[in-house]
């Protein structure tokens, strides 16, 4: 069953069209990778699904929440979206002024209104699962690229998303760490999380993608299953 | 080559001729403050390039006696002593009071006018406030560094009177009408003018003290001073001084008595009195330390409160300019430019004296609002810059987690911007600490004002200046250290 359905998606910035007529679905427990050169529109697709940029045409359905053109989600629909979709940015964008642990529990407390004690405990569990509980009290600038990425994944997972979006997840990792990441993602998919990654790293894609979509100049071709 | 030489010769000759004109033996350069106004020295209403007043006429008599032409030099009242000591003019004439401090630092002429210190009050209080003793716990206005000020400081210890120091002799009387003070203590020349200009005021007949107007000149000009004394004595004898003071409605019974004493070879008492002002530097420092300490507390409290106001208003203004709708942004930008583009001194005047018709702000509150709002404009620019300097990725991350705009500002963007804003904020706070000295124009006696009173009384800026600087540094250095420690903690 498709948890994410993108249909006829178009994204533009000003007069410039970034993405044209892109359609695809992602099932629960499925790991899908969009491949393509820089500037092909991969990141724009992810940002549209995460609700960060408005879309020009088409629609996106995520487990009952629909994103429509020219429509900015507010209130209930907005909160519903962010419980369903988590995003891990290429450069992680950890909150620079907060510890790793605080980065993870910030949104559960302030968006989901969880009690702080519970949220902190869950955050620590997530960091343990990611293998970096020892770094819980480190500031982002003290973390290596791989550590920062795992904190960023924990931060996204803390909101309990059904779809996890990752932009160029291997860009800041050395080969050994790439293997670790692939293992983490396979584990997430096994637990039923839908994964959509944007990457141009073929080795990584082979190791953890069930399906690959390719993009070029804002358009998409389905090539493999 | 020839041409270059010619230019050098030309420049040299211009320079020489200027020096010659500055030191022309045919001129008597006399210094005074035309802001002092009538009857002393003021710009001629018919020809603002000329000055008129009884001091102008006395300068003419002196110049004539010396066979020179008088030339007026505008010098701010509070700078007259220092300018005389530097030799900027040959003689200073501007309602300058005889005092032991002046005598010890400068060559002082014989007195040419005797004045009385007079209490001015509102008509309604005529029966209540007759003497300083009646004004227990009341605010009494005067000019700083005058005999009247010394009398008030004395009355402060004796009768608990509260001295309020002004920098000009017009606003004490207007503030008396407004009720900001309950009396003004100044000499009878100023008091008569104050009562004439402000209906509803009256002068009490009681003498609070007696003093004399004198001319001042550099100590090395003692010979010139002696010549001027001779000229003044001649003018007393032949009635020329009387003519002048009659013309300016200042003649009274006290003057002939003074002249008779002087012509019989006596010197008036006030110059002979042993006085508190003839202290050694250390004694003076010890005596003024408590007053300077109190003034430093005023400076510190005023600066802290003003900075708090500046930060609050600055944060709101910056948020409005970053998040607000376009009309609000335009409005706030205009407000910031208006405040940044006009002098703080002007803003303080408008707040305290200008707005007095609408709302009578107490001096401290006016100072707090003036400084706070002025600095808020600068702070808002710092915060706006800092908010815009927070990387957009941080905002994307906050939005992708579902934080609202307000939560993003409070939890992510604000705290990060604050770190960026801290160094310029520290800078501004230190600047505000020093700018707070401007509020003395609206009668708040803070550190710099207290220092200038101290300096005027002992006739030197050296020790008071050093003590004042030490106190400012004692206030600003710990602050700079605290800020550095915070920055280090965040960088760790």
Textual characterization of the structure:
The complex is a heterodimer of chains A (225) and B (492). With 225 residues, chain A is an alpha/beta fold. Chain A contains seven helices and ten strands. Chain A has one domain (2-224): P-loop containing nucleotide triphosphate hydrolases (Rossmann fold). In chain A, the strands form two sheets. Chain A has a six-stranded mixed beta sheet with strand order 6-7-8-3-9-10, with helices on both faces. Chain A has a four-stranded antiparallel beta sheet with strand order 2-1-4-5. In chain A, helix 3 (100-110) packs across helix 4 and helix 3 packs parallel to helix 5 (145-157). Chain B has 492 residues and is of the alpha/beta class. Chain B has 18 helices and 13 strands. Chain B has helices spanning 2-22, 54-66, 80-86, 100-105, 147-159, 171-178, 188-197, 222-237, 240-247, 254-263, 281-323, 326-341, 344-354, 363-389, 392-400, 405-435, 447-458, 462-491; strands at 27-32, 42-44, 47-52, 69-74, 91-92, 107-108, 113-122, 139-143, 162-166, 183-187, 201-203, 209-213, 216-217. In chain B, helix 11 (281-323) crosses helix 14 (363-389) and helix 12 (326-341) crosses helix 14. The interface between A and B is medium-sized, with 27 and 19 residues.
Fold blueprint:
The complex is a heterodimer of chains A (225) and B (492).
Chain A: E1 2-13, E2 16-27, E3 31-35, H1 42-49, E4 57-62, E5 65-67, H2 75-84, E6 85-88, H3 100-110, H4 116-129, H5 145-157, E7 163-167, H6 175-190, E8 194-199, H7 202-208, E9 211-216, E10 219-224
Parallel strand pairs in A: 3-8, 3-9, 6-7, 7-8
Antiparallel strand pairs in A: 1-2, 1-4, 4-5, 9-10
Helix pairs in contact in A: 3-4, 3-5
Chain B: H1 2-22, E1 27-32, E2 42-44, E3 47-52, H2 54-66, E4 69-74, H3 80-86, E5 91-92, H4 100-105, E6 107-108, E7 113-122, E8 139-143, H5 147-159, E9 162-166, H6 171-178, E10 183-187, H7 188-197, E11 201-203, E12 209-213, E13 216-217, H8 222-237, H9 240-247, H10 254-263, H11 281-323, H12 326-341, H13 344-354, H14 363-389, H15 392-400, H16 405-435, H17 447-458, H18 462-491
Parallel strand pairs in B: 1-4, 1-5, 8-9, 8-10
Antiparallel strand pairs in B: 2-3, 6-13, 7-10, 7-11, 7-12
